[in-house]
Amino acid sequence: MPWQNSRLSLLGWGLFQVAAYFVLALPSLVIIGASLNPASTFSFPPRGLTLAWYMKAMETPAFTDSFLLSVELACLATALSLLAGTPAAYALQRYRLPGLQSLHSLLLSPIVIPAIVLGIGLLMFANLIGIGQGLAALLLGHFVLTLPYVVRTLISSFSLFDVVLEEAAQSLRASWPVVWFRVILPNIIPGLLSAAIFAFVTSFGNVALSIFLVSGSAATLPVQMFAAVEHSSDPTLAAVATFVILITGAIVLCIDRLANLQRLI
After folding, report:
1. Whether the Cβ atoms of residue 37 and residue 47 lie closer than 8 Å to each other
2. Domain boundaries, the chain
3. Which of 210, 213, 230 shows the shortest CA–CA distance to 221?
4. DSSP label at 181?
5. SS3 232
6. Of 42, 127, 228, whose CA–CA distance to 220 is shortest?
7. Short-list 249, 234, 204, CA closest to 34
């Protein structure tokens, strides 16, 4: 019967979703399980439960210093990307001027360029302008990397924004700063939050580009973890990876809650 076929289709789709989510979550579950394993080697399933590897990770300066650097770098890159990407997305969405389509393609090009090629190019550019490897080069590289995600996300937000509100404010002789800060920005806060989390997570977890721009005194956490894999096999790395997973998940949940609350206001 039709209703039975419909129920079977819904059941099949539900099982497919559960299987897909399980496959996506499986690597993270393995990492979390290995980080709690009391054995001195990376193994799964765990033979017990311990937090010793988390304590060791927090007592290792290489991991704590690189974590703080990654957070600082991701925050700075996100802030710069929002400052530059918000007006760029507004112009690309609102106006149809010669050259804007080329600018659009240029802003989104870091997404399609292989990260290794982009890293080599940015390293050569950093050496050319005299900043070399280090925090300044990393900030430049992460700004270039995160800007496309901000622009792409905010273009979608501006496309959903009702232009009538902006025109109404202008007809009431509101100045442009008032229109921007009292009308436009409050209505795209969910988009700004989404763009910020995309930029932060992209910057915080980047390895392929960062590895070309780090210096001995400025290594991000993913690069530090990548280097530690070569000479370490204990679950400390799993503990660090679990900490990153939990931090990222908490940020996503907080942003999602804030965005939902904003929609209800």
Report:
1. yes
2. 61-264
3. 210
4. I
5. coil
6. 228
7. 234
Q: What is the CATH number of domain 61-264?
A: 1.10.3720.10
Q: pLDDT 10s digit of each residue in the chain, 265 long?
A: 454 556 666 677 777 777 887 787 777 787 887 777 777 777 677 777 777 778 887 888 888 888 888 889 999 999 999 999 888 888 888 877 777 777 778 888 888 888 888 888 888 888 888 777 778 888 888 999 999 989 988 888 888 877 777 777 777 777 777 888 888 888 888 888 888 888 888 888 888 888 888 877 678 888 888 777 777 777 788 888 888 888 877 877 776 676 554 443 3
From CA 136, how far away is CA 76, in angstroms rounded?
11
Residue partners of 222: CB distance under 8 A and separation at least 6? 70, 204, 205, 206, 207, 210
Task: At 229, give phi and psi (nearest 5°).
Answer: -60, -30
| Cα end-to-end distance, the chain, whole Å | 45
- Pull the structure tokens for residue 45: 């399933």
pTM over 0.85: no
CA distance 3 to 8: 9
Integer Rg of the chain from CA: 23
Contact 66, 210 (CB under 8 A): no
